[in-house]
Design a protein that fits this description.
Layout lengths: L3 H59 L2 H11 L1
Length: 76
């Protein structure tokens, strides 16, 4: 083995360590991004459900005689 080979492996190990840190960092970012997307999807689904319930309540209120009477009196 040439004497220069051990010297050249030290920079390669340092570079490998740097690259491994970058990979681990990227993996962490990807995991957080995935978790954030899941949380956003869950929040959006809950918002859609709440909107559907609210619209259903509004539709129901519009069909009651009390609402119709109030609307007709307001028109006078």
């Amino acid at each position: 083995m040439p004497a220069s080979q051990p010297r050249s492996s030290a920079p390669n190990l340092a570079r490998r360590d740097i690259l491994m840190e970058r990979v681990e960092s990227a993996a962490g970012v990807a995991a957080r991004d995935h978790a954030l997307r899941i949380a956003l999807d869950e929040s959006l689904q809950a918002l859609r459900q709440e909107t559907a319930r609210t619209l259903s309540l509004v539709r129901h209120q519009r069909t009651t005689h009390v609402y119709r009477r109030a609307v007709s009196q307001a028109a006078l």
